[in-house]
Amino acid sequence: GDHRDLHLSIRRQRQMCIRDSVIMDHFRNPRNGEEIAEYDYCREEINPFCGDKISLKIKLSPERVITSVSAIAEGCTVIKAASSLLSVFIEQSSIDELPGKIEKFEQFLKNNDESVGYPELGELSELGIVRQHPVRLKCVLLPVRALNNIINQS
Question: What is the pTM of this model?
C-alpha cells in the first residue's frame, strides 16, 4: 500500500510543479523586493509561529493610484512568492478599488471549488495551491493583512 501512496504523492507533486513554476519564479526573483525611498504607507506583519515576516510600503499619486510598492518578505517560499505576486497585482491600481479585489482573492483562497473561475485575479490565482495545504494559507494571508491595514489607514 505504501508504495502506491508514494507514487501518487510524487505524481501529485509533479502536477503541482507545473502550476508551481510561477510561484518558484516569484520566490527566486521577487518583484518589488527593493526598498523604496519614498512612500506614504508602511506596514510590517509577522507570524510569530513560523517567523514569516513582510514589510509592505506603498506610494500613492494625488489620484490615489499606487505608483510604487516594495514588498520585502522573509521566511518560506510561499510568503516570498505571495508578497511578490500581491505587489505586482496592486501596482498601478487605485487604492480605493482594492478592497473589492482583495475580498475576491480571500474568497478564492477559501473556496475549494476548482470550477469557479476568478479571471480578474490574474497570476494571483496561482496561489490557489495553498488550498490543499491549509497550514500555508497563513503565509499567503500575511501580506494580505499588511495590505488591508494600509488600505484602512489610507
Answer: 0.86
